[in-house]
């Protein structure tokens, strides 16, 4: 074990012994859900709580006669990318399905956050034979520093179709709608049924017309949200969620028949908006119990051993302060998503009265929970900088996040139009952002636990919807445990 890994283990052990200050998980939870109101596109409701945000993109899709108003901006820009948006909704729904009973007064806001997304996904799949994968020209948008309320860059809609398929984005929408249908089933059966019906249709479309949207929409979707892992994992992921929502043998058989199509290398340790392998294994391990040994349980166990810092087969890195690190930008997406899977799988292990053997290391359900909590606590401020990476939580948090709306004065303060280049002054200033995007979780520190708090350093300072989504479930659990 490397020195960094040993330090990480010691840091986690200290946390387990209560040597680290406790956190207000409930307050962090409330803020992490509030963040989604700051990412809303479209006509904002009277109940909007982040009031510096106003209506935006009210004519999306109108040029082609389709209503594509609504949904979420994925990060600090003003483009609507359906692939990561749908994954964020899937994870919000999963958070509620697992830990919704712990949400308390935040439940209603969580449901609204999900429905803001599912309402849009219904619009994006409303034209037979088409799935709208994106709204907005990312190159035009990224060359400007404009408030969403001021956008004058092209709002071009991009769709996949029978001739130009996009199985990954379509199947992820199916997963989001199926998962969300279960969330709404106890409270709005009509809406739940509508989501599930659409999920089935979109999944059939994704499966029948197979292909990656890289090939059709690559010039616009890449390099922002290219699908690097292929679309086979989304097809199995979508089928798994439909299996959980319907218990239909068709989806069970589909999962079993198509699981061998997934990459057999180290992908069992991957999970995020692009690669679903670890999530599939954790999800399906509770749904299908037929084969011995069960491949899903075997691979879910291998996933755990790839994350635990003391495991001989660990495949992630840890910073000296104990943060899980993987290559690429927006690292906290890995810390939240993988921790969420550890927490969910720990419950499966407890139910089965089972432990995992990683070589000579024994991983108990309690150890999985401990590692997940160490990541949450790091994000909340138990780190070498004593800094929260959730905007608005604790006394010290990122103040110069890479986010157009947050960094530019609100329309209330500055009603005049700010054009494409007019925002540059605000981008380059050292002043804190004038608008607090409460609850936003940024990309996070580097492998040495350092954080520059610079708008220009977008790989570390930009928030995204898919960083927050798994964190909602984690915070709900730790709030009540």
TrEMBL record:
**Main EC class the enzyme belongs to:** hydrolase
Domain (Glycoside hydrolase family) ranges:
25-475
One GO term of the biological process aspect: cellulose catabolic process
Q: Which reaction does it catalyse?
A: Endohydrolysis of (1->4)-beta-D-glucosidic linkages in cellulose, lichenin and cereal beta-D-glucans
Please state the span of the N-terminal signal peptide per the UniProt entry.
Answer: 1-22
Q: Name one GO molecular function term.
A: cellulase activity
Hydrolase recorded as keyword: yes
Pfam families, alphabetized? Glyco_hydro_9
Question: Residues in the active site?
Answer: 402, 453, 462
SUPFAM superfamilies recorded: Six-hairpin glycosidases
InterPro entries from the UniProt entry: 6-hairpin_glycosidase_sf, 6hp_glycosidase-like_sf, Glyco_hydro_9, Glyco_hydro_9_Asp/Glu_AS, Glyco_hydro_9_His_AS
Q: Which Gene3D superfamilies match?
A: 1.50.10.10
Tell me its EC number(s), please. 3.2.1.4
Instruction: Kindly state which keywords UniProt assigns to this record, in alphabetical order.
Output: Carbohydrate metabolism, Cellulose degradation, Glycosidase, Hydrolase, Polysaccharide degradation, Signal
Give the record's family classification.
Belongs to the glycosyl hydrolase 9 (cellulase E) family.
What name has this protein been given in UniProt? Endoglucanase
Please name the source species: Gossypium hirsutum (Upland cotton)
Taxonomic placement: Eukaryota, Viridiplantae, Streptophyta, Embryophyta, Tracheophyta
């Amino acid at each position: 074990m490397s020195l960094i890994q040993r330090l990480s283990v010691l840091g986690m052990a200290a946390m387990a012994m209560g040597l680290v200050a406790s956190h207000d998980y409930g307050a962090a939870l409330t803020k992490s859900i509030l963040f989604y109101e700051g990412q809303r596109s479209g006509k904002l409701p009277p109940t909007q709580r982040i009031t510096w945000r106003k209506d935006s993109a009210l004519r999306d899709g109108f040029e082609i006669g389709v209503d594509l108003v609504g949904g979420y901006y994925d990060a600090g820009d003003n483009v609507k990318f359906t692939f990561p948006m749908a994954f964020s909704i899937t994870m919000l729904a999963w958070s509620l399905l697992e830990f919704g009973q712990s949400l308390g007064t935040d439940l209603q806001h969580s449901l609204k956050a999900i429905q803001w997304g599912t309402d849009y996904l219904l619009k994006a799949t409303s034209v037979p034979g088409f799935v709208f994968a994106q709204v907005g020209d990312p190159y035009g948008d990224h060359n400007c520093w404009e408030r969403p309320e001021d956008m004058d860059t092209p709002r071009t809609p991009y769709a996949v179709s029978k001739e130009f398929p996009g199985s990954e984005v379509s199947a992820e929408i199916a997963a989001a709608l199926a998962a969300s249908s279960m969330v709404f089933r106890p409270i709005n059966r009509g809406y739940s049924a509508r989501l599930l019906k659409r999920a089935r249709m979109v999944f059939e479309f994704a499966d029948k017309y197979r292909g990656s949207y890289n090939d059709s929409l690559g010039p616009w979707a890449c390099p922002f949200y290219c699908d690097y892992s292929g679309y086979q994992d989304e097809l199995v992921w979508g089928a798994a969620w439909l299996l959980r929502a319907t218990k239909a043998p068709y989806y069970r058989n589909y999962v079993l028949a198509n699981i061998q199509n997934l990459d057999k290398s180290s992908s069992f340790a991957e999970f995020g908006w692009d690669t679903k392998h670890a999530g599939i294994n954790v999800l399906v391990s509770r749904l299908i119990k037929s084969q011995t040994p069960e491949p899903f349980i075997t691979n879910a166990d291998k996933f755990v051993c790839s994350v635990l810092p003391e495991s001989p087969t660990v495949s992630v890195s840890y910073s000296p302060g104990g943060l899980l690190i993987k290559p690429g930008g927006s690292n906290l997406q890995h810390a939240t998503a993988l921790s969420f899977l550890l927490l969910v799988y720990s419950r499966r292990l407890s139910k089965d009265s089972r432990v995992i053997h990683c070589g000579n290391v024994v991983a108990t359900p309690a150890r999985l929970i401990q590692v997940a909590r160490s990541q949450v606590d790091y994000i909340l401020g138990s780190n070498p900088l004593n800094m929260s990476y959730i905007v608005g939580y604790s006394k010290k948090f990122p103040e110069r996040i890479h986010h157009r709306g947050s960094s530019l004065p609100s329309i209330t303060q500055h009603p005049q139009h700010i054009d494409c280049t007019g925002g540059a002054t605000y981008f380059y200033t050292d002043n804190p952002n004038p608008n607090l995007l409460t609850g936003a979780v940024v990309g996070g520190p580097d492998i040495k636990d350092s954080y520059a708090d610079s708008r220009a350093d977008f790989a570390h300072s930009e928030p995204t919807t898919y960083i927050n989504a798994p964190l909602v479930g984690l915070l709900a659990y730790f709030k009540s445990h």
